[in-house]
């Protein structure tokens, strides 16, 4: 079954997993298997005034809708592109007196689209909204209560003159949002800024070691009169060679967790038991729980004690980060590493988590040399655990490269930036803003490396002069959030 731009994939039914997607032809790493515009999408409540409601880019100055005073856009192009989806919302917000929550707004946008087009197959969709999984029957008491609240709020917001839908169908739509809402990120891919429904993507099953990845592409609205004008979309990209007939899989959760933890998370959020090879055989769990090898192997009690100390420290770190006490975070990390280093192996996830936080916060505080040392150890551990073409690995290697570059370690910095660029070319593609940023850094560090190789003394003199004349670029403030996950789930 294929449809408009989806000729390279087909929907099939799999034993025990329901529907899935299968490749119709061969794909190589980095190939775009399909791109899909959102069926409906909204900006998160907390960011409605700083993110464009059409392309989801973060912008300094946005134009506000003169009618409802709620929606914001980059420019007239984005505002015009939004009108079909915003028209009903605009008058409903004016009538209601205020905008409802993101969940209600997304449900309303889906139902207005159904009112316009019917609930059958939309152009380019392999399945209809009616057919998407809602898992409402699996909801716990708390989730059912939230669902009832959402349905009541929706009915208050939904205009009486619009098509009326039954309670069961409205509940179905909220269930679909809860299980299938995809996280939309800003143009740098670093912050989750909204949620959308992409029916074709919803058909891709989970695997902890997938053969595909999903990247959100904000599109190019500025090039309005050229062939480069593209709309906001998600892209499903191949991570490894895929043969015709292979199932296309994506990972719903970060791999950097023990198989038991990943399975718990998947069961809680997506209501299924993961039976992938990596979970069944607990592949890589030994690396993630590694302890120091050699003559004086630590006792099981010592390991248990250090892991408990690490968990307690991570809680304290989160609290200190929330309060912006970054020097306190550094102290906690250093103390924890002192305890961990004689006991835990280089790939132990508790050690890697502390190294990651320490390198990020020290970079922000411009203590680049110490940060670079931790970042290098973090990357060495990640490379042994993650799939070689994992987007989170690419971002971590990029961060480590920038840290080394800022520390004046130009050889290691350039090497890491090149490595990150090779990964992100596959996971994000050459035209993604973050890949373009990396390309600029790659060219700059290559030029500096040549200068360094010709005359080390002169390189450091010029670097010193440059740093005196211009303030060193400050790293972004460390975020408490993890990198945006694949599917958005209300906590």
Summarize the topology.
Blueprint: E1 9-14, E2 18-23, E3 32-36, E4 40-43, E5 63-64, E6 72-73, H1 76-96, H2 102-117, H3 141-157, H4 167-180, E7 182-185, E8 192-197, E9 205-206, E10 212-217, E11 233-238, E12 247-250, H5 259-270, H6 277-280, H7 285-288, H8 300-322, H9 326-340, H10 349-364, H11 368-385, H12 391-406, H13 410-427, H14 433-454, H15 456-469
Parallel strand pairs: 9-12
Antiparallel strand pairs: 1-2, 2-12, 3-11, 4-8, 5-6, 7-8, 10-11
Helix pairs in contact: 1-2, 2-3, 2-4, 3-4, 8-9, 8-10, 9-10, 10-11, 10-12, 11-12, 12-13, 13-14, 14-15
In short, what is this structure?
By secondary structure, the chain is of the alpha+beta class. The protein has helices at residues 76-96, 102-117, 141-157, 167-180, 259-270, 277-280, 285-288, 300-322, 326-340, 349-364, 368-385, 391-406, 410-427, 433-454, 456-469; strands at 9-14, 18-23, 32-36, 40-43, 63-64, 72-73, 182-185, 192-197, 205-206, 212-217, 233-238, 247-250.
What does this protein structure show overall?
Helices cover 47% and strands 11% of the residues. With 491 residues, the chain is α+β, with helices and mostly antiparallel strands. It has 2 domains: 242 residues, Beta Complex (Beta-clip-like); 182 residues, Alpha Horseshoe (Serine Threonine Protein Phosphatase 5, Tetratricopeptide repeat), CATH 1.25.40.10. The chain has a 4-stranded mixed sheet with strand order 1-2-12-9, with no helix packed on it. Strands 3-11-10 form a 3-stranded antiparallel sheet, with no helix packed on it. A 3-stranded antiparallel sheet has the order 4-8-7. Helix 9 packs antiparallel against helix 10 and helix 11 packs antiparallel against helix 12. The protein is globular, with a radius of gyration of 24 Å. One of its GO terms (biological process) is methylation. Its main location: cytoplasm. One of its GO terms (cellular component) is cytoplasm.
